Amino acid sequence: MKKLIENISNIWKVEELRKRLLITFSLILVFRIGSFIVLPGVDSSKLGTDGADAGTIEGLLGLLSGGGFTNASFLALGIMPYISASIIMQLMGMAVPAVQKMQQEGESGRKRINNYTRILTIIICAVQAPGYLSLYVAGKNAIPVEFINSPLWWTQSVLVLVAGAMFAVWLGERITDKGVGNGISLLITVGIIARLPQSFVAETAQHSFLIVIIEVVVFMLIVMATVLIVQGVRKIPMNYAKRVAGARGGAVDAQGARSYLPIKVNASGVMPIIFAQAIMTVPVMFIEKQFGIFGFWYNLVLFLLIIVFTYFYTAIMINPKKMADDMKRNGGFIPGVRPGDETASYIDELVSKITLPGSVFLAIIAIIPAIAVQFGVGDGFALFFGGTSLLIMVGVVLDTLQQIESYLLNRHYDGLMEGTKIRGRRTQGEMSGM
């Protein structure tokens, strides 16, 4: 513990890291305050509490927006429209030649793709905002009678929601550029974590102390398992011909340098769950009583969709042919496997094998909240036992800690994760071939 406290104190000794952390905290605070600023003209007293919506699709969206959705805040749409736009652009990169060309143009192409992503985000927000106002806010009778039939109020509210979503995107991008971690992911994570204390207090009020302790232990075990899967990689041994010319350009040392090709067990990350839940949102909105988020059929279909999307997104993320060509070009080879097509087939077969358990794990994580509810866990607290919220929290926290550790190591300080197996740097075995 003393070593950990000393390592944490080292953070403030690195001036650049200290400034970045202060900027990150400041922008996150702005986002959190914005989540409680209600849309003009909306009667917030009619919206109820987050706990009342815990077992509904509105509660899930409220969790991912940090409460802005259920508060009818001007940040109600949150970051999700931008994420949806980013996913669409990634898919277009597979099918649209013009987008593929931009992806190959380096920094200039990336900027153009970002601009198109923002434009697409505005379009998505413009479609989602009226639906949100009519289905959720008006459904809660939170719109005063004098505004129900007012085109001016509807127009201004839609514009405010669109502007709020773009403001959230701007905050996320500023955190990424000037702060620490991925800003978009951090905003979602902070919003999720902000709901945890409230859900935990509600849970302690419903159950005995012993039951709550058991639930917390189970929650920690699930988190540990998630960390192991998120960090898990299958290391493929590789050799590189290490050529050292003699003083007169004579002898060549043909001794190979050992390295590894790491293939993540969960290469697709949280995207399959986001894909599947985005699709499942549509039927739930119309037939929620028969198809609720804790219902059998909802979770069965969700389970199957996540497995399908995991294979689909892994195919986008990992290109065995390109990896084999890069290895061959750099003089690398897998022992016992011929370079070229045979190497590509070997990598493809290996990826297929490790993707199956990875996809099943993701699917199980996604339906754990429904299982937890069956064991008596409250709806609000159950959402933290799995699904998108848990994977986002674990992934973002690990990524942010690794970035902080990199700053500390570059300044010759011990990292936050010194002495653990979760590190932001490669092991000596992985670096030996570099």
TrEMBL record:
Transmembrane parts of this sequence: 21-42, 74-99, 119-139, 151-172, 179-197, 209-233, 265-287, 293-313, 354-375, 381-401
Cell compartments where the protein resides: Cell membrane; Membrane
Do you know which InterPro entries this protein is assigned to?
SecY (IPR026593), SecY/SEC61-alpha (IPR002208), SecY_CS (IPR030659), SecY_dom_sf (IPR023201)
Q: What is its main location?
A: membrane
Q: One GO term of the cellular component aspect?
A: plasma membrane
Q: Name one Pfam family in it.
A: SecY
For this UniProt record, give its keywords in alphabetical order, as a comma-separated list. Cell membrane, Membrane, Protein transport, Translocation, Transmembrane, Transmembrane helix, Transport
Q: Does the keyword Protein transport apply?
A: yes
Which Gene Ontology BP annotations are present?
Answer: intracellular protein transmembrane transport; protein targeting; protein transport by the Sec complex
For whether the record's keyword set contains Protein transport, the answer is: yes
Its placement in the membrane is given as: Multi-pass membrane protein
Family per UniProt? Belongs to the SecY/SEC61-alpha family.
Q: How does it assemble?
A: Component of the Sec protein translocase complex. Heterotrimer consisting of SecY, SecE and SecG subunits. The heterotrimers can form oligomers, although 1 heterotrimer is thought to be able to translocate proteins. Interacts with the ribosome. Interacts with SecDF, and other proteins may be involved. Interacts with SecA.
Role, per record: The central subunit of the protein translocation channel SecYEG. Consists of two halves formed by TMs 1-5 and 6-10. These two domains form a lateral gate at the front which open onto the bilayer between TMs 2 and 7, and are clamped together by SecE at the back. The channel is closed by both a pore ring composed of hydrophobic SecY resides and a short helix (helix 2A) on the extracellular side of the membrane which forms a plug. The plug probably moves laterally to allow the channel to open. The ring and the pore may move independently.
Name the record gives this protein: Protein translocase subunit SecY
Q: Which organism is it from?
A: Brumimicrobium salinarum
The gene behind this protein is secY
